[in-house]
Amino acid sequence: MRNYEAVFIFRTEADAYNGGLEKVKEALKKAGANIVKEDDMGDRELAYQIKKESRGHYYFFELELTPDVIVKIESDIKLFNEVLKFMIIKKD
Asked: What pLDDT shows up at residue 23?
């Protein structure tokens, strides 16, 4: 198990945000990720438009997972319409 940090940007509508967050948590748990820390970073202005949205709701995770499941997690999350953008990086 390695440590990773992940940031997700969701659509700002309440239904999209709540539904998207639940889908992401479910995908992470399904892949065997252990969620160490969560932080709701709130609604923010985006530097540039993403999928015709100018604002996004940011959410941060600290994760423990095996490196081989990252590709599976990323491919699952790309299908979620509620997620505007995300990034998973290895923590030193």
From this structure: 95
Give the residue from 26, 33, 36, 24 showing the smallest Cα distance to 69: 33
Q: Which CATH architecture has domain 2-90?
A: 2-Layer Sandwich (3.30)
> Whole-angstrom Cα distance, residue 14 to residue 3?
30
On whether the pTM is more than 0.90, the answer is: yes
- Give the rounded distance of the alpha carbon of 47 from its chain centre: 18
All structural domains of the chain with their residue ranges: 2-90
pLDDT digits 0-9 by tens, 2-12:
999 999 999 99
